[in-house]
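USER: Write out one fold?

ASSISTANT:
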Amino acid sequence: MSIKKENAFKQLNIDFNNYSSLVLQQLKSLEKIVNTAETTIPEEVYNNIKAVEKEIDKYEVKLSDDVISIIMLYSPVASELRQIIAYYRISLNIERIGDKIINVVKYINRIENPKMYIGFAETISDILTISISMVEKSLLAFTNNDLDYAIWTIKNDDVVDELNHSFIKKAIKKNSAKIKTQEELSEFIYLRSIVSNIERIADNATNIAEAAIYSIEGKDVRHKKTINKKDN
């Protein structure tokens, strides 16, 4: 590998780590918000989350440019190309996770009557906790070439899906007869949207894990229902 190519890969990795750190920071901020079960988010916290989201967007653009530059200038070999493609796929999913975090914060902030939200705060926290772990482990799967973390992440997507479906059933059963006003209907929609966006965070973590497997082994496991270690 030439010095220029090596330096380009090093810079790509530095930018990627900074990018990943920002989205993990956002997830921890969201976790603190959800764990308080409060629907009024302090202005300072809200503004900080929005500011970090802008940085995430900038990094996504920079990483895309870095990937294109490396392909155009340095003619990467097959293993390097797989890694570069994985960087690109993962960077897109990190940006989408950032968007979902902003969506959750906005929906929480719109809730005026927190009674319904408080009743499901623990369930929402549980789903978010698993989703955050999935993001963390999927990123480690890529940076550390760890297949076990990638497989763990993909398998836990089913856990989040099941929790989400269970939440929907409970929420409908518990509140359908009580929803009588437009305000109550809006609160229910916000609640459902919060959980839906958290579920999408888990989905994006799964996409990252799949990209990690592609980088490590050259296998495209997207859209496959189950993954066993024997198959890898």
About this structure: The chain has one domain: 3-231. Confidence is low (pLDDT under 50) at residues 226-232. The chain has seven helices and no strands.
